[in-house]
Fold each of these.
Amino acid sequence: MTLANQLTLLRVALIPVFVLVFYLPYQWSYMASAIIFAAAAATDWLDGYLARKLNQSTPFGAFLDPVADKLMVATALVLLVGLHKSAWFTIAAAVIIGREIAVSALREWMAELGKRGSVAVSYIGKIKTTAQIAAIIVLLAFDVREYPLMETVGYILLYIAAALTLWSMVMYLRAAWPTLMGEEGSGKS
């Protein structure tokens, strides 16, 4: 078990801790849940860095890392949907979670065809992830009843992330479109 894989497993193990802290009936639970989420996000960067730097990339890590990321983000968004009780928030969260499911399925299908490289993570996906993590941390860290400005900042970041989510999904679908439509090698475009 490599250090990178241990960090990824730690990220998964933090999910129930994150949920429990989120629901604690104390004012400090907002900041504590944001810190746990931020720590999980940091391990996402760190495990990838270590896997590359120490040449410790493994098939298990390649599988588990994106799963851990999606589990943590989806869990955070579901918790925040319950807290914010807003159609606008729920729409953005549904877009983000729905895209993650769709792109994961697309990548799996393309990998079965030996074409995973055509739907590899793009630069826009990295920017989307950064905006998404920043939005979630802001929305977790502050009680929106006491800090309405931070709620606004969090919503703006969340909508930026949702827009980038849609944009990156369109890019992945365009890259895979010829394969999806069975047009490869047929001369059609």
Amino acid sequence: MAQTTSGPAVAQVTAPDRAAPLAVRSSARTTPLTNQVVIAAVSVVAAVCSVLLPWLTVTNAPSMWAGAGLTLVGLAFTGLLVARPELARFELLVPALDFVAIGLLRFGTGDARSPFLAAVLLPVIWIAARPGRQHVVYPLIGTAVTFLLPTVVGQTELGSAEIVRLVVVLVVFIGVAGVTNELARQAAVRLQAMQDLRQQAEAEISQAALVQRSLLPVTAVDIPAALTVRAVCLPTRSVGGDFYDWFPITDGAAFTLGDVMGKGVGAGMIAAVVRSVLRSSVRVGAPNEAVGRTATGLDVGLDAPTTEQFTTCFHLHVSVDGVARWVDAGHGLTLLLRADGGHEWLRSSDLPIGVGSAWTTHETALSPGDVILSVSDGVLDLFGDGLEALDRFEAFAVADPDPDHLVERLEERGRAGHNEDDVTVLAIRYDPELEAARS
């Protein structure tokens, strides 16, 4: 079997979430339809109530129903706008039609005494909420059309009282349009600023994910041929708190699987520090000394702000003669799969890095074909909840201990659905015959 890592050994990073911009665009397309539904509902209800309620007046039924009908025509057109986004440039035709419709409704339900003139505020706000100061002027023209239409249809003279009322209405509505337009402009500025910040954050997270991927080893050509290694890391976010690593040492190779409490960039930074310090301690000696130096490197003193983060870690040195010396720093998820079918957990009572202060090096003799499988706790989530998940995982590993198959099948499970925690797997097989063949 080749000693380099297989394709899946490269850490997979999830793509940034693009759902929010898509939702914004979808909302922008459906807003005209929502606006027109309200206007059409108000107009139709006003017409029906004018017919059914004795205290409401119907002065011209054809005009009243024509006004309600025009709002329904506008509703059909906005439905077409949603289905055909390329027609969006014609959106303002709908509120323009509504000004005429409300004018006819007003004429048909009492003219100057109509209680439904206030409905003109709906198309006013619709237009004024669009960007550009010209959208303050358009509602002014539309309101004048609504107010003067009964005079044109009824062929009546505009009295002084009506002129005063028109001026007051125009002043008030132009004020409403101006305020609406300014609020919409400020909201657009804030939205753009938020989108810029989001894009900047996504770019920084993408860069952090790239850096984290570059820290994961992708080849094992430098480690002894007696050791075959396979690994995969599937973070739940672009940057995760899990990591694996391997590198050559004097008499063999060192392997690490770490799991930083938490997710995201903060956990990824801690993971990078732990990995780097462990690598720099390659000449220290025993694994417990390397872990101790790592804890010292993360210790920033009693007066420093606490991050409440710790790292569980399994750090292993394997020599070419089959001696495995290991430290279990609060990890507890490393399984030794014997070539004869037996298995045992490589665990200790030592505390995680960031919590404990001393660690013990344990020694285990490996036989040809033995496999050491270490996983993060996100892997257990793939096997259900509770203590039964550990039993199911154990049975899964014992059934087929081949490193290629273990990593491949666990990766398939990890990619099959959304995981709440990072999924990381590290599998090492000891086979001295490969070393002899290379020699």
Amino acid sequence: MTVNDDSFTNWKNREEIAESMIPIIGKLHRERDVTVLLHSRSLVNKSVVSILKTHRFARQIAGEELSVTETLPFLEALTTLDLGPSQIDLGMLAATYRADDRGLSIADFTAEAVAGATGANKIECREGRDVVLYGFGRIGRLVARLLIEKAGSGNGLRLRAIVVRGGGEQDIIKRASLLRRDSIHGQFQGTITVDEANSTIVANGNEIKVIYANDPSEVDYTAYGIKNAILIDNTGKWRDREGLSKHLRPGVDKVVLTAPGKGDVPNIVHGVNHDMIKPDEQILSCASCTTNAIVPPLKAMDDEYGVLRGHVETVHSFTNDQNLLDNYHKSERRGRSAPLNMVITETGAASAVAKALPDLQAKITGSSIRVPVPDVSIAILNLQLARETSREEVLDYLRDVSLTSPLKRQIDFTSAPDAVSNDFIGSRHASIVDAGATKVDGDNAILYLWYDNEFGYSCQVIRVVQYVSGVEYPTYPAPVA
């Protein structure tokens, strides 16, 4: 047998193992509301090849490839436990087991590592929480995809309705088609049908009512059986408390804005300040995509090195706010053709840092350039630190943050030497540290942070909604604080 034959045989064996993992992962998710992760990446509803690629990706951040032969025993051990709703990271289980010198069996180690999610400690499945989307544009449709994907056992978030302005003949069919196919993010993973007579879109069995209204005051959500709902405003039309309060109608309990909030509206970056949300707070903002991209690594750097001052320059993909061709726009430069120009514009992300990180004393400035790509942006964070360090130390620290810290769902890490923006379409992290581009000279550090300004941001929105709804389940093994 040749070396190539050996490699192919090994691949087929790993395919078989990954294939055996799929029904276990699916059953845990459907029946126990357990989400199986691998280094913060969900394995639910993933194909054989996706599972193998996710294992291989660990090589970039952990330094060595993780094999399905190593993680399968941990997954099998989970099936023997009385698990409650939770997120369990096989990558972390394998890593902590390797570092443990007590000689425990995998079964005993796993039972100990996830003890907080078993037996008398486990969280009972909660009644699902209704969600309404107000607006159905780029972020609205991606949030819809995520809500449908995460419906799982039916005990979590339930997308009940979408509120839009009437768009004329076959409006609902056109909106369903935009949900079904996306030029950037690809096909919807599942099936979508339309019931025009009842103004309903059915996506993977989820019945979603399409409500037509020109103003929040026109809608009584209880008429559709919606109660105690979280409404996600994707329009950005109202950004202060007075305007967003219009959504607090019968059937709606809380309002989450997918744009920077103004005035006293809390700006929340999940992973950084979400635990500061007051239980009785009815209106909050998820800030901007760029704020979500820079605040987690900024917090991480301040925690370890101290940050005296900083500047963020964002190279941002164009958005719907810009014109395809030169035309009138209320902003001077944004009226120029987005696909044909680099456009200097402003960003409020730097000033928004103060709301998300009030303890940060450093002055942060910022500016932005819109460029002719449809998705994925990069933030260049230039920091003066409180102490000198080295490039190797910073990269080791940020790699560890991405793997084991409470910010591991927000900060990702890549050492791929040929990484470009398209590689990060679909990233679920708020930002990805590019190791190859990182520069450190004494007390000056320059971080290059990729972020999918559409999908990564939408994932952050969902995390905030899960938190305020009470269906954000704990992760095991617990991240290192």
Amino acid sequence: MEKLIVTGEVQLTGNIRISGAKNATLPIMAATLLCSGVSVLHDVPHLSDIKAMQDILELLGAKITRDGSAVIIDTSGVSKQEIPEHLMREMRASVFLMGPLLGKFRKVRVSYPGGCAIGPRPIDLHIKALEKLGAKICESFGYIEAEAGQLTGAEIHFDFPSVGATENAMMAAVLAKGTSVIRNAAREPEIIDLQDFLNKMGAKIRGAGTDTIRIDGVQKLYPTEHIIMPDRIQAGTFLIAGAITRGDIAVENIQPEYLFSVTNKLEELGATIATSTDSIRIKAGELRGGDIKTLPFPGFPTDLQAPILSLLTVAKGTSIVTETIFENRFKHVDELTRMGARIKVEGRTAIIRGVPRMTGAVVAAPDLRAGGALVLAALAAQGVSEIEQVYHIDRGYEQLELKLQSLGARIIRSK
């Protein structure tokens, strides 16, 4: 299998353009099922998760072509409402298809989704939301079947602001009869992007980005064209890469307001941040430790917990990282320890004692964001590191080694 070979201790410098967001693209691709015709999505990243979603849509009957970063999706021939188990298991985001298929065809059958093993992510919130809208759910033999003669608007209250459940409920409700209100909705920017796409299709949604979303059901939706928002997690990873290598880089094509929790924390750790309309520049020298707690947006994102933990391993002093979203999201700690990091995990808390430098080692990416974290650690480490199981990294970071090479990193992909 392929691996990344990194020679560390190189300061990253230069400008890097951020591509479209994976976490916005996947639900929007699913949402194209709500209408019949050709929709065009721009700035779609080349990622294995995107390809997996494409495979599912094609199996359902869609015709999909790519032209650079544009993806053209023709849903005119979609007629199936069942997704095979082997495709559902490829990625967690396949659960997004329940809402659109139920909304369009009033029936859907899926198996339980797969994805990174970062802790239990039950889909009970998704199921409860669909039941509120009038769906009858049957769970048996590892499959979930949902059926509804007519979806009707409802009041939906989430016990936890789940991003996926919020988006699934939105997609199911747009074609429901009457008005739906989602309370304690997740507030992540990707939900705003989904709202914008659905409204371009003819939906009537308002409130995305707040904890209350109102959806007035419509009878029909139409194909449209849309530019995917920039990937704030990718942007945050590159900002941390600039900091951990004591570099000077500018991250471009972003929405800085969505990264305030990250840039504020990097400034607390000693980095210098300069923000413009659509870019952030980071310069860093010696860094100091600090405390970080992951929270739903607008708090510090759980998807950047692993990357910033790598940074804290070489920051001066002691740091504490508390993970509140996923309970198994410290799998990268054992790999960082191989590189000389001093980290102790107690439940959902990691205590990090900074070391002057880490050393290269052979490590394996246990999941997507942990893989990104190991690449960052290798960039700062003395000597050569080999990172195995890079297929995890390819799920969410488009051409990561090429983008890092453009900033001066000594990193190659090898078999």
